[in-house]
Amino acid sequence: MHLGSHTFNRPVLYLAPMDDVTDAPFRALCHRMGADVTVSEFIASDALIREVEAIQRKWQSAEDERPFGIQIFGNNAESLCQAARMAESLHPDFIDLNWGCPAKKIAGKNAGSGMLQYPDMLVSITQEVVRSVSLPVTVKTRIGYNEASKPIVELAKRLQDIGVQALSIHGRTKAQMYKGEADWSLIGAVKNDPDIRIPIIGNGDITTWEIARDRLAAYPVDGLMIGRGAIGNPWIFQQCRALVEGRDIPPAPDLAERARVCEQHFLANIAFKGEHTGMLEMRKHYKAYFKGQLNIKQQKLKLLTSNDIQEILQTLHALQEMEDQNNEQPC
What we know:
The chain is of the alpha/beta class. Helices cover 45% and strands 15% of the residues. It has an 8-stranded parallel barrel, surrounded by 6 helices.
């Protein structure tokens, strides 16, 4: 598949944009682990136009984080086109339109997946954005608004016809939010439609490399977009990268490796956001990093409650030593 100046001869691995999760430190970590394409946290077009200070951090990226896209959302063509031109001036590889977020505060204003109620308007606004920039424009969306309205096959063709360069599809409706199972059959229907020529990226419930393997076997999409499955588990990209390149799958990380990478993430967060904010915002990651790890309740509590950087670092070092000591014990 082609994305701007980048070409891939195998299924492409995307890190899904997630608000308050896929910031620059986390994207950089996933990129090092094997993610091919990263996308900014989604940015409100109105906030981007107003140059809201808190928004500026969301589009920052490292030079080696390529291909990198800036994702914007809104509900009218004028503000989205202006935001897209502003985003283009920051030199990402592509602009991504979010027609998929189901959050009430977004979809309730007919942005995100709320616009799936009005496919004609969605296509019209998208066309205006495509015309307003020279960069490739991609779209992330869902299979439909609710159980009674799943127009994704026809919508995909219409988006292709107006110049959208790639389409990422989450296999749920807006009404489902994140409940139930993602329906990949409609993602497959889009990919298998003979009129579809643009890359189709499948998204939804990819939490292990085994699930990634099964989805690629059943639905020959051009790429996989991994979201919640990467939180606290950036190794999923390392494993999926080996999968799509035909190499042996690396083993799951042990406790020491989890603690080492968590420490790297923590320090990068502090450097990027400052001590107070960086320390507090890491708390959303600790539970996922150490999910399923036994006999570390006390250490996890310290990570979640401590306001002292040195105590957090000492706790992470202690977790590394626990695993190292276990590995040194005779069989």
